[in-house]
Write a structure and sequence with these properties.
Oligomer: single chain
Keywords: Amino-acid biosynthesis, ATP-binding, Cytoplasm, Kinase, Nucleotide-binding, Threonine biosynthesis, Transferase
Catalytic activity: L-homoserine + ATP = O-phospho-L-homoserine + ADP + H(+)
Function: Catalyzes the ATP-dependent phosphorylation of L-homoserine to L-homoserine phosphate.
Pathway: Amino-acid biosynthesis; L-threonine biosynthesis; L-threonine from L-aspartate: step 4/5
CATH class of the largest domain: Alpha Beta
Number of domains: 2
Number of strands: 11
Subcellular location: Cytoplasm
Bound molecules: L-homoserine
CATH architecture of the largest domain: 2-Layer Sandwich
C-alpha cells in the first residue's frame, strides 16, 4: 500500500486504558469485565523518524523499548490501516497492570496504541467503535479482553465473517470484584495449547446455560453469581499448569465465593455479590495459600479507554 503523509507535527496525546478480566468462568473468549486499574501512555510526534519508548512501573527494564514494542506496533498497525505514514514518535508509558497474570496487559498495550493513533490522527482519519475493535482483535486474536478495555463495563464480544462485534452492559452496582494476583506468571499461548480441539456436547450445553445465566447475574441478580460462574470449557484443562490457582478456586467456591480463573490465569477473580464479601475471600486466601497472593479490591470501570490531546511539551510527565 502506498502511504500518504499527514502533517502531524506538534501533536501529542494522553491515553488511559483499564485492566480487564476475560472469560469470567463460562464465557470463554466472549465475556470480559473492565477493572479500575490503569495503564497510562503519552505519545508525541517528533521530527526524527523511529520511536523511543520510556517505561515507568510494570515492565520497566523488561519490555522492548524500540519499534518492536507492542504499543508502537499497535500505533503502526492503526496508521497503516488508514494508509497514513507513521511519523517519528516519543512514548512514555506508566504501567500498573501486572504482566502475564491474566489481567489483560497485552490487550491494554494494544488498545493504548490504537487509541493513541486515533488521537494523533484526529481530523485526518476517523475510527468508529467497530473499527477500533477490529484493529485490536487483529492483534490480540480474540476479542474478550480488548472489548472491555476499549469500551468499559461488561462486554459480550463475538466474531462474525465481517469482523468482531460487541455489546456493552452496565454491571449491577452490588457486583464487587476481588482479584488475587500471584507472583508467578502464566503464558496465554501455553494455556491455549492445553485446550482440546473438541469438547463433549453436554459440556458445551453446560457452558451455554451458565454463560447465559452469568449475564443475568452480573446485570440484575448477583445472588446467582456462584451458580453462573461454573465452567467446563477451559479451566479444568489448564489446571495442571497452575495448580495453586486451581486449589484456591476450589477452596473459595466450596466456601460460597464465585471464584474463577481471570483470563488465562494465573490470577483469580472473585465476583462478590456485595463489597463486604471481598475481605472474607481475601482473608481465606491469605490463610490457605502456600505462596504470596496480592489482593486487589477493584471497582468495575464503566468508561473504558480514553484519549485526549495534550501539549507536546507535557510528554515527559505521565498522568498521575
Ligand atoms: N479468552 C482468553 C483465554 C483470554 O482464556 O485464552 C486470555 O487472553
Amino acid at each position: 500500500m502506498t502511504l500518504r503523509t499527514a502533517d502531524l507535527r506538534g501533536r501529542a496525546v494522553a491515553v488511559k486504558v483499564p485492566a480487564t478480566s476475560a472469560n469470567l468462568g463460562p464465557g470463554f473468549d466472549t465475556l470480559g469485565l473492565s477493572l479500575a486499574l490503569y495503564d497510562e501512555l503519552r505519545v508525541s510526534v517528533r521530527d526524527e523518524p523511529g520511536a523511543t519508548v520510556e517505561v515507568v512501573g510494570v515492565g520497566a527494564g523488561e519490555v522492548p523499548t524500540d519499534e518492536s514494542n507492542l504499543v508502537v506496533r499497535a500505533i503502526a498497525h492503526t496508521f497503516e490501516s488508514v494508509g497514513v505514514a507513521l511519523p517519528g514518535l516519543d512514548l512514555v508509558a506508566r504501567n500498573n497492570i501486572p504482566h502475564g497474570r491474566g489481567l489483560g496487559s497485552s490487550g491494554a498495550a494494544i488498545v493504548s496504541g490504537i487509541m493513541a493513533a486515533k488521537g494523533l490522527l484526529e481530523g485526518v482519519a476517523e475510527f468508529d467503535a467497530q473499527a477500533l475493535l477490529a484493529l485490536a482483535n487483529d492483534m490480540e486474536g480474540h476479542p474478550d479482553n480488548v472489548a472491555p478495555a476499549l469500551f468499559g463495563g461488561l462486554t459480550i464480544a463475538w466474531v462474525t465473517p465481517e469482523g468482531p462485534r460487541f455489546k456493552k452492559l452496565i454491571v449491577h452496582r452490588g457486583v464487587s470484584p476481588l482479584v488475587l494476583v500471584p507472583e508467578h506468571v502464566m503464558s496465554t499461548a501455553l494455556a491455549r495449547s492445553l485446550q482440546p480441539q473438541s469438547v463433549p456436547h453436554e459440556d458445551a450445553v453446560f457452558n451455554v446455560s451458565r454463560s447465559a445465566l452469568l449475564v443475568a447475574a452480573l446485570i440484575q441478580s448477583p445472588e446467582l453469581l456462584h451458580a453462573a460462574t461454573e465452567d467446563k470449557l477451559h479451566q479444568s484443562y489448564r489446571a495442571s499448569a497452575m495448580p495453586e490457582t486451581d486449589r484456591l478456586i476450589t477452596l473459595l467456591r466450596s466456601n460460597g465465593f464465585a471464584a474463577v480463573v481471570s483470563g488465562a490465569g494465573p490470577s483469580i477473580l472473585v465476583l462478590c455479590s456485595d463489597p463486604s464479601q471481598r475481605l472474607a475471600a481475601a482473608e481465606l486466601v491469605a490463610r490457605e495459600a502456600q505462596t504470596a497472593w496480592q489482593p486487589l479490591m477493584l471497582a468495575v470501570d464503566f468508561k473504558g479507554a480514553t484519549v485526549t490531546a495534550v501539549a507536546a511539551d507535557d510528554v515527559d510527565t505521565p498522568a498521575a
